[in-house]
Amino acid sequence: MATTDLLVTHLVRIAVLASMASIALRPNFAKRLFLRERRTIRQRFELAALFGVVFAGGSLVRIVLGYRAAEVGMEGAFVSGLVGGYVPGAVAGALISLPSVFGPQTEWVTLPLLVGVGALGGLMRSLAPDPEEVWQFSPFFMFSLVAWARGKLRHSQGAYQCMLLVACLGAEFLRTELGLMFQRQGLLFAFFDDSASPHSLAWLLVYAATVVGVGLTLKVWNNTRNEWKIENQQRLLTEARLLNLTRQMNPHFLFNTLNSVASLIRTDPNQARQVVYRLSAILRTLLRKQEALVPLREELSFIDDYLQIELVRFGSRLQIEKDIDDNVADALVPSMILQPIVENSIKHGIGPKLGSGTIRLSGSLRFGRLQIEIEDDGVGIPLDEMPSVFRKGIGVSNVRERLNVLFGNDFQFLFEPREGGGVRVRIQIPALFESSRAGGRAVEAGAA
User: HSE-up of 425 (CA within 13 Å, CB side)?
Assistant: First the structure.
């Protein structure tokens, strides 16, 4: 093969390796496998099957279409061992060799070669001073060598990167020599024709393409792996932030209720016992394992217990009305989202009002979105104070923060003066339903 043709072939081979590396990340279970450094036996075989199927595709294309640049089996076996260890490397090597072994030429030498190269990759993984060192192998290996020579890499890091480089070159040397030895019998594929002595530049191209291909494959995987890690960290941060906000909510509500109990003990012990009974039901709900989203019916049940406490305190001065559509009972809402608003309506709306007051709760679906309204006919909020309502008090600001954490900008949380006096609070969020939830995740419902 001419040197120019060989150059094109190996440039295409590097591109094929990068494409196959990307394809290996597509299955849903790939994320789980790539993010783990320690894997069960089952996960190791899953990883081997993933690598084997993907990289065997290159050998199949080479055999069926005669496209030599698609042959990336050796590099695939080596990186399988580097990423997965001995078992995934050897098993993936065996799977990758199947198209060659059972192809028209019966290239059976491919089987022990790729199994051995996969095991070599596993050996290199076990020799790594840290599992992360495997991912640092770069297609621009010369820069790593220069950085080591200048003392920018620790001795163990530089030595290991050199070991990986030598292992890549050794695997290619073994493949090339065996190819020249068995090519005439058709027992192993080789990029060189044994009828002519290859040019030294051709040798350089073959070895360089192997090293760059292995390094590029690892870089593609590592970049995606780092993106997955960032996503997981963001998710964990969001969950921790949400949990902190929920914990902030519970003491706020609890302390207010205990103050009510303390005052009732002096004036009416029987009513105080009723409040304590209701409070125990609320605490049982709070102490259960909480999720970010709960069905609306559970949230309304929680509000019923809370309002029973307030009814004991306010008596006939407090009236409650509900208008909840039947088709929203299973809609998912953030847990403890209604209680702070209802508490705010009672404390700042109905409480200061002379005479009785009414709180009305309504819920409905509108164009595929859940809309909840809490109205009171209390003293209301002066218009000049409306813009600062979210900065006053823990409860309301907490609700807005939690909605922002869960839904980003895809929600509405509005306070507006109500005609005839009082305040209307409107919450509008995506319509999510418990029946579509799997593993704690909710799926948006269709338009109502």
Answer: 24
